Amino acid sequence: GILLSKLIKKHARLILTELLIQYCCSPERVIQACKQLRNIDTDTKVSQVSAIPLTQVADYIQPKMLGVLANIDNKLIHTRIALSVKRKAFQSFPHIINLMGSKHITILRFKILATLRTSLSSMKDFPLLNIEAWNAFVRNVDTTSLGPLLTTIVVSLLPLIENIPEKLNEILEYIIVQNENILSTHISDLFFLEKT
Fold it and tell me: CA neighbours within 13 Å on the CB side: how many for 36?
């Protein structure tokens, strides 16, 4: 009743963060729970919660997204956190990025980039998880905003070439070949890449 909704409102950010970290385990249930949380937290009375579009869910998450990212960072860097928890949080990360979409991810690109760079050392034993998160990031940041980050992205990703060259090549092809027209002024900054 009223007491429960007050309690949920009071802890909405924490609830949302914990829900999103479970995204990889049960995406449909997490989305449904996020819709219900949005309904309660914003005092919106939508009779069919399932009818709430994902764009409205992303809009609801946006002001809380820095907290979500901080929570993921916290899980990645602390040694006391179980590897299984770290893995689940990081497995959910690309899904969260895709849910938020370009509109919201572009705004947070520097913070997300910092989280991704942290993951390269803290999740080094999981190169496939790393590359999936990086792939979601580069495909969801507005392409023109990706340009100034190009050198940082490529330099950060190069250590993954030994473990998963095909997946890394897909990202580089997307950035350099498929978006050459948009990013041409920044591609020259990648002089350190060998021509193949």
Answer: 10
